[in-house]
Specification:
By secondary structure, this protein is mainly alpha-helical. The protein is built from 15 helices and four strands. It has two domains: 258 residues, no CATH class; 97 residues, D-Maltodextrin-Binding Protein, domain 2, CATH 3.40.190. The protein has a four-stranded mixed beta sheet. The relative contact order is 0.11.
C-alpha cells in the first residue's frame, strides 16, 4: 500500500511539473480568471447600467397620428423631456427604419368616446428595439396620467375627489437584508463561473496527460513499468483535479474580491444595496461541492483523453462534457421550482449548481446537500474507473499488444 501511494505521488509530481511548464494551462487556469472575472462581474453590469441610464435620460422620438383629436394628450411628458414629438410623412415606415421610437394613433371620434368612457389610443412600437420598448412604457404612463387627470376633473365637477375613488393606499417593504441580496447576486454568478472554470481549468492537463502522452509516445514508457494501471491513473487524476480545482479557487476569490471592490466603488446601484459576504459554514460546503465537481470533471476528462488516439480526437470527446456542465449552469437561475425536486440534486450537471445556489441563498436542506455530495462523488468514482479501464485496455500499449 505504501509503495502504491509513493508511486502515485511520483506520477502526480511528474504530471504537475509538466503541467506547470505548460503555458496554456497556466494561462487558462490562473491568468484568464484574474483578467476576465472583474470584467464580467463589474464591467458588463456597469456598461448595461450606463446604457439603461442613457436610454432613460434620452427623450423618446414619437410621432402622433391624429394629434388634433387630443391636443393635450402628451403635453406633460413633452414638458418633462420624456417625449420629443417628431413630424414625418410616413410614421410607420420611419418606425421600422429606426427614425422613430413609437407612433401614437388617435381615432377621429376620440373626444366623443372619452365622454362615454370608451376612449382608446393605439401605441405602435418595435418590440425588437429597447428604445422602442421604453417609449411604449412612457406613452402608456402618459396616457394613464392623462386619463387620471380627466377622471379627476369629472370627480371634481360632481363634488368628489380622487380620495373618494381610492380610499385605501398600499405601501410595501422588503424583508431581504443586505446579506440576502448579496447571496442572491452571488447565486446568479458564482455557480456558472465555477462550472465553466472547473471544465476549462483542467482541460489542458487532461489532454496532455492522456492523448498528449500518447502522441509523444511517452505513455508506452509508463505502461511497461511494473506500476499498476490504477496507480498511474490516480497520479494523473490528481494532477488534472489540482489544475481544475486551482482554477475554481482563483475564480471564487477573484469574483468575491471584484464584487467587494465594486461595492466600495459604488458604481453599480445593485451592489450598493448588497453585502457580498459568505459565512464560514456555507463557504466551506461550497468548497467541498466544488472539489467534488472538479474531481468528477477531472476523472471524466482524463478518461476521455486516455480513450482518444490523439489530442484532436480528445477535444471532440470533451465537447459533450462541456455541454453537460455549462448548459445546466446557464439554465439553473431560470429553472423555477426545480430547486424543490430531489432528483435535481443528483443530476451530474444540475446537482452541484443548485447545491451551490442553495448554500449561497441559505435555504439548502442537509438532505439535498448530502444527495449532491454523494451523487457527485459516485460520478467521480465511476469516471475514475473508466479512466483506469481506458488505460488498462489501451490498444496501442506494449503491455496489451499481441505478439
Amino acid at each position: 500500500m505504501r509503495a502504491s501511494i509513493g508511486a502515485a505521488a511520483a506520477v502526480f509530481r511528474k504530471e504537475m511539473i509538466e503541467t506547470l511548464r505548460d503555458r496554456r494551462t497556466l494561462v487558462v487556469a490562473l491568468v484568464l480568471p484574474v483578467v476576465l472575472m472583474p470584467m464580467v462581474t463589474l464591467g458588463v453590469p456597469y456598461l448595461a447600467q450606463r446604457q439603461r441610464e442613457h436610454r432613460e435620460m434620452a427623450a423618446s422620438r414619437v410621432a402622433i397620428v391624429g394629434a388634433e383629436f387630443a391636443p393635450q394628450l402628451l403635453d406633460e411628458s413633452v414638458a418633462r423631456g420624456l417625449i420629443r414629438l417628431v413630424g414625418v410623412a410616413d410614421p410607420i415606415e420611419a418606425l421600422r427604419h429606426g427614425r422613430l421610437d413609437a407612433v401614437v394613433e388617435i381615432p377621429t371620434n376620440f373626444a366623443t368616446r372619452v365622454q362615454t368612457g370608451s376612449g382608446q389610443v393605439t401605441i405602435v412600437f418595435d418590440e425588437s428595439e429597447a428604445r422602442s420598448v421604453a417609449a411604449r412604457q412612457r406613452l402608456q404612463d402618459a396616457v394613464a396620467g392623462y386619463a387620471a387627470r380627466l377622471a379627476e376633473q369629472h370627480l371634481l365637477s360632481r363634488g368628489l375627489s380622487r380620495a373618494d375613488l381610492a380610499p385605501i393606499q398600499s405601501t410595501s417593504r422588503s424583508v431581504a437584508d443586505q446579506r440576502r441580496l448579496g447571496g442572491t447576486l452571488l447565486a446568479g454568478l458564482l455557480p456558472f463561473f465555477i462550472a465553466i472554470w472547473a471544465v476549462l481549468g483542467g482541460q489542458h492537463a487532461a489532454l496532455d496527460t492522456g492523448a498528449g502522452e500518447r502522441e509523444r509516445l511517452t505513455l508506452d514508457t509508463l505502461l511497461v513499468t511494473p506500476t499498476s494501471r490504477w496507480v498511474l491513473t490516480m497520479g494523473k487524476f490528481m494532477a488534472v483535479t489540482v489544475a481544475s480545482l486551482g482554477s475554481v479557487f482563483v475564480v471564487i476569490a477573484v469574483t468575491l474580491v471584484s464584487l467587494r471592490l465594486g461595492t466600495a466603488w459604488g458604481g453599480l446601484a445593485e451592489l450598493r444595496r448588497a453585502s457580498v459576504v459568505i459565512s464560514a459554514g456555507p463557504a466551506l460546503w461550497i468548497l467541498v461541492v466544488s472539489t467534488l465537481l472538479a474531481a468528477f470533471l477531472g476523472a471524466a476528462q482524463l478518461a476521455l483523453s486516455l480513450l482518444a488516439r490523439g489530442i484532436r480526437e480528445a477535444q471532440q470527446y470533451f465537447t459533450p462534457l462541456y455541454l453537460v456542465i455549462t448548459l445546466p449552469a446557464m439554465a439553473a437561475p431560470f429553472l423555477e421550482g426545480w430547486d424543490r425536486s430531489g432528483w435535481t440534486y443528483v443530476a451530474p450537471g444540475l446537482g452541484p449548481m443548485f447545491a451551490i445556489r442553495g448554500l449561497l441563498l441559505g435555504d439548502l436542506p442537509p438532505t439535498l446537500l448530502t444527495a449532491t455530495l454523494g451523487s457527485t462523488a459516485l460520478f467521480a468514482g465511476v469516471s475514475l474507473l473508466l479512466a483506469v479501464r481506458s488505460l488498462r485496455h489501451d490498444p496501442e500499449s506494449p503491455a496489451t499488444a499481441g505478439p
